[in-house]
Write a structure and sequence with these properties.
five-stranded parallel β-sheet, Rossmann fold, 48% helix, single chain, alpha/beta, 5 strands
């Protein structure tokens, strides 16, 4: 799949990582490119992720909104996908493991899966198979064959774009 035309779904962790580690005043070219990605609808954010960004870094959320970030709302298809993911990792009755994904994380993964999109997340990578699937973080859940969501972190996203700033 080529770079252009491929939707990427932004997790709150990546939006916050970019905001904290690549200040717009020092990396204006990066932020101009991100604005273009948003305007071309090649980068979008689930509503639950945008709410997390709003809570943790209101100025980052304001920048995203000011640059027309496409917001992915949680509809029936995403909810059904999220239920399937929950079943895959063994979450019953909202009994999430404190070291693993939570409800918002599952909705974010489901938003990407339902749209056949890559997920950009800066959640920590876990190496090796987890003894309990409920302890998996976003990247590990994405890589479970039944979930099958391609994912990369923010730096990998930049490198894959081959953009020069």
């Amino acid at each position: 799949m080529s770079w252009s035309g491929t939707l990427r779904v932004l997790d709150a962790s990546s939006a916050l990582h970019a905001w904290d580690n690549y200040p717009a005043a020092q990396f204006p070219g990066l932020w101009a490119w991100l604005a273009t990605e948003l305007q071309r609808h090649q980068l979008a954010i689930p509503s639950v992720a945008l709410e997390e960004v709003q809570h943790k870094a209101p100025d980052c959320a304001a920048w995203l909104k000011a640059h027309g970030v496409p917001v992915l709302h949680i509809g029936n298809e995403v909810l059904q996908t999220a239920l399937a993911i929950r079943a895959t990792i063994g979450v019953e009755a909202d009994n999430y493991h404190p070291k693993g994904v939570d409800e918002n994380d599952v909705l974010i993964i489901a938003s990407a899966k339902a749209r056949g999109a890559e997920l950009v997340t800066n959640e920590g990578r876990q190496f090796g198979k987890q003894a309990e699937a409920r302890k998996c973080k976003i990247p590990a859940v994405c890589e479970i064959p039944a979930v099958g969501v391609a994912n990369l972190n923010f730096l990998e996203y930049i490198k894959k774009s081959q953009q020069v700033f």
